[in-house]
Amino acid sequence: MFENLNWWEIGALILLALLIFGDRLPQVIQDGLRLIRNLRTMARDATSDLSRELGTDIQLEDLHPKAFIRKHLLSEEDEAALRNPIQGLVDSVKRDVSGINDEFKDVATAVDPRRPASTPAPAAAPAAPAAATPANKPATFDFDAT
Is 94 helix (H, G, I), strand (E, B) or coil? Predict the structure, then answer.
């Protein structure tokens, strides 16, 4: 939770808490800790009540709908049967998007030859004719005109 805070920021938060709460800071900390303990107890009691009602062992992580269905309603074979067609579709879309990305890079390189290409152009791409520009100079392209 506090992995992005450095020591200066933590010190500033402590100083701010002292300025806001003053003498009441220990009582506010105790009340906060008591609230967290009560919430944990309520969550533990709710999961135990739910486990007892359903007749299965349910953990707090299992209350997420996807995890609950995966653990209690689907067998491993059913889950694999549902995942395989979707995974094939995801792989197909990734390949298509990668191909489109490569085509956009090729077009960007063809439009502005001074721009370095991050990947080499495919061998099947047609080369620009040498006689299209005088003295084999790259054609200038006015970006403001488009």
Answer: helix
pTM of the model: 0.35
The pLDDT tens digits for 29-74 are: 999 999 999 999 998 898 888 778 877 776 666 667 777 776 767 7
- Per residue in 118-137, pLDDT (tens digit) is 545 454 444 444 444 455 55
d(CA 106, CA 117): 8
User: Per the structure, how many domains does the chain have?
Assistant: 2
Neighbours of 51 (CB within 10 A): 14
In a domain, 108, yes or no: yes
Question: What's CA 133's distance to the chain center, in Å?
Answer: 46
The reply to whether 129 falls in a domain is: no
Which domain, by its residues, includes 103?
74-115
